Fold this sequence. Notes:
- This protein is an alpha/beta fold.
- The protein folds into two domains: 7-115, ATPase, nucleotide binding domain (Nucleotidyltransferase, domain 5), CATH 3.30.420.40; 129-299, Nucleotidyltransferase, domain 5 (2-Layer Sandwich), CATH 3.30.420.40.
- The protein is built from nine helices and twelve strands.
- A hairpin with a 5-residue loop joins strand 2 (18-24) and strand 3 (30-37).
- The radius of gyration is 20 Å and the shape is globular.
Amino acid sequence: xxxxxxxxxxxxxxxxxxxxxxxxxxxxxxxxxxxxxxxxxxxxxxxxxxxxxxxxxxxxxxxxxxxxxxxxxxxxxxxxxxxxxxxxxxxxxxxxxxxxxxxxxxxxxxxxxxxxxxxxxxxxxxxxxxxxxxxxxxxxxxxxxxxxxxxxxxxxxxxxxxxxxxxxxxxxxxxxxxxxxxxxxxxxxxxxxxxxxxxxxxxxxxxxxxxxxxxxxxxxxxxxxxxxxxxxxxxxxxxxxxxxxxxxxxxxxxxxxxxxxxxxxxxxxxxxxxxxxxxxxxxxxxxxxxxxxxxxxxxxxxxxxxxxxxxxxxxxxxxxxx
Length: 322
């Protein structure tokens, strides 16, 4: 596939709340972006229409550009080989939906469907904090907890393209029921959602002056801000969150033996406060040869998935000669 400077890749990041689109050149540079609220009620066909509308808005601002292929980053589980989604927790009505082929019919270009954790990992590997590392793990810690793995210089996909669903490792046998159907998943204890739920459950508003102004409506960022002001309860809650993250990371270290862990997602905005708890848990519980690990904040922020899926779409189209 010969690519000219006018040729661009349409990158889509589909989430349960927001649908983002970008035009990206062959080098991975974002040329323009658009976003809208995901039409969850309308289902996948409505979302494909939203994608088409976003692509037209992007192209209207760059009339000389030509979309040569598209990549869609989507929550899992999904079969990336078949381009088909399964039962998505945040997006009802997608079970068994042939997303890639339907999007290809609507957009008129080759379409790649990729797991959002894999796409973000690939973006960080190509352009961000994983660059130069042939063995690293990307973790996104936000509403949920997921990730992707680069092993021996290749993105780890698995038999159906669903490898590295790390958030659904069991860390507490017979623990709470997860949306995936399993019990005691790591996501239930270390995600941003679980962090905030833990704080709200344990906070004594009358005692914890750092939260009085927010009442019960405080957010995770309020907890981190309170810790930065010296609130001891907030500091303790962040330490516990770091330990839960460290618990899962120790298993990842023993399983994949990466050289670097890259942490992204909304919680990474306060990476500096989380890191001490993570490192303390690793130092105490990882086998000695695995402790020398670099743990860093993701470099691309919420653009990682867009950048990663653009590279994956371009490379897939190139292999197929499309």
